[in-house]
Amino acid sequence: MKIFSKEQIYEGDQLTAKKQNISSTELMERAGTQIFNWIHQRMQGAQVPIHVFCGIGNNGGDGLVLARQLINYGYNVHTYVVNCSDKRTKDFLVNYDRIKQTTKKWPIMLNCKADFPPIGPDDIIVDAVFGIGLNRPPNEWVKGLFQHFRASKAFTLAIDLPSGLYADKVPEDENGVVWADYTLSFQSPKLVFFLPDTSKYTRQWEVLDIGIDLEFLQQTETEVELIGKNEMLPIYKPREKFSHKGTYGHGLLIGGSHGKIGAMILSGRGALASGAGLITTFIPKCGYIPMQSVVPEIMVITDVDEEKLTAIKFDIEPTAIGIGMGLGLDDKTHMAFQKFLKSNSVPLVIDADGINLLSKHKVDLKLLKPQTVFTPHPKELERLLGKWKNDFDKLKKAKTFSKKYKCILVIKGAHTITVFEDKLYVNSTGNPGLATGGTGDVLTGIITGLIGQGYESLTASLFAVYLHGKSADIAVEDYGYQSLTASHIIDYLGQAYLDLFAKPPVQPQQENGEENP
User: Fold this and answer.
1) Which candidate in 61, 121, 130, 374 could, as Cys together with 92 as Cys, close a disulfide (CB 3.0–4.6 Å)?
2) Closest by Cα among 227, 265, 220, 272 to 251
3) Residues with Cβ < 8 Å from 93, sequence gap 6 or more?
4) 439-452 vs 457-483: helix axis angle to the nearest 10?
5) Which positions fall inside the YjeF N-terminal domain (predicted)?
């Protein structure tokens, strides 16, 4: 799913109005009607007080359309205009006149803190104060209104974007933002829904189709994409009947040190579960017996040293290499790593201490071949890029780094974001159960296994992140967040593959033909 910028959304609105020969007011009516349909489907006329707070721009106009339609259907509606400026948009004024013609209960003007209405904890707040066009913090009394919303503990539904939240930067003051329980986002989600600094402002979100021109949606290239099943299913490579283990690549995993052989075991098992035909590990001598005992499917090459890697030498011809898991930061290991990078020409995935070694010796970054994949957790990323001010600054630094070294950055997190040059791919799967040791080692193994099977490095990274998160989503149903382990991710990876082909359940129908809420 494409995630459009605010500039692209404005362009889409204007193009739609022109191509469909409708006014911007009619497009606003369409958007407000979609919001009404969403609410009506769930409430079915329930007389819970609904407080619709409208700004004086187009977001407020959407709110006025909604309030008018709720009134027409007999809902218990209280409409307010947050009178924070004397600049009103044309479409707001049109819909302000329409609601005054609909009911004698005209919208109440709010001009200061003394005007704040009482709101009960069982009421519903609809936030239609500001939209994506906000470019400055709200004034103090409007901030007070937003805090009034939050203090009421009422269910808060935001229209398109929680008011006070920018589409493209982090707000200066969290008290100047509406904390929404649910956001109905027009046509596509917003990037801020997926970033650690800003995702807290909406607990859940849903996309409403407001009929933006289909050709525009299909042909417009976006900087950001949301990756889900629909994006991953077409890239899946089915197995041929007469294929054999050699068909699906030979992955080599390099790493481990005394006390950290488990990282290599997990990575190797992840690579096998991804579908790799052959997996070999290169580890210190101390890992030989554990690796051969725990994972008999994996072949083992050992370093001459008992506890660490000192000379990376192998006589196999791998199709992909993953390096860094449990590697350690010993000087001899660094020298071996540097020498390996100078001679390597095989597609490469770098994790954990491989990243840490490069962060300590940044001159070695020049040795990397294009399309090298990095899989850092936040602290490893900070060592690699330097400190950042906020999530948008982090992504800017990541794009600069990716373009400089022509590499792929898999930024692990609640919504793992894969960065390749100027493009961002936001993953839709995964849960807090993944916040446990070893899950990153598994992910590196899966990426290496997929590249070895013939997937391009970027495609393999996106697919691996999706499958890794989906496996966790399936496993958490049996184990819960606290008891989920890295081994469970491997055990459920097969079900994640099968889920690609699972059909969604059929929704039961009501007598009038509408779907049940």
Assistant:
1) 61
2) 272
3) none
4) 150
5) 9-218
Q: Binding site annotation covers 263?
A: yes
Cβ-based neighbours of 439, under 8 Å, separated by 6 or more: 468, 472, 486, 489
Look up residue 118 and give its DSSP letter.
P
In whole angstroms, what is the distance from residue 73 CA to residue 39 CA? 12
137 is annotated as contributing to ligand binding: yes
Q: Is 127 annotated as a binding residue?
A: yes
Residues 393-418: pLDDT tens digits? Answer: 999 999 999 999 999 999 999 999 99
Alpha-carbon distance of 399 to 510, in angstroms, equals 49
Domains of the chain: 2-220 (3.40.50.10260), 247-499 (3.40.1190.20)
Determine whether 194 is exposed, middle or buried from the number of CB atoms within 10 Å of its CB (0-12, 13-18, 19+). buried
Q: Are strands 320-323 and 348-350 parallel, antiparallel or unpaired?
A: parallel
Query: Distance between CA atoms of 39 and 76, rounded to whole angstroms?
Result: 13
62 in a known ligand binding site: yes
Q: Is 78 marked as a binding-site residue?
A: no
Q: What is the DSSP letter of 437?
A: T
Place of tokens 């008011």: 163
User: What CA–CA distance (Å, rounded) separates 13 from 9?
Assistant: 6
Distance CA 290, CA 31 (A): 61
Q: Is 212 annotated in some ligand binding site?
A: no
40 in a labelled binding site: no
CA distance to 1, 3, 153, 179, per residue, from 222 (Å) = 10, 7, 37, 27
Q: CA torsion angle for 80, 84, 88, 89 (degrees, to 10)? A: -80
Write down the pTM of the prediction. Answer: 0.93
Query: What would the pLDDT profile of 243-299 be if each residue is shown by its tens digit?
Result: 999 999 999 999 999 999 999 999 999 999 999 999 999 999 999 999 999 999 999
At residue 181, the 3 state secondary structure works out as strand
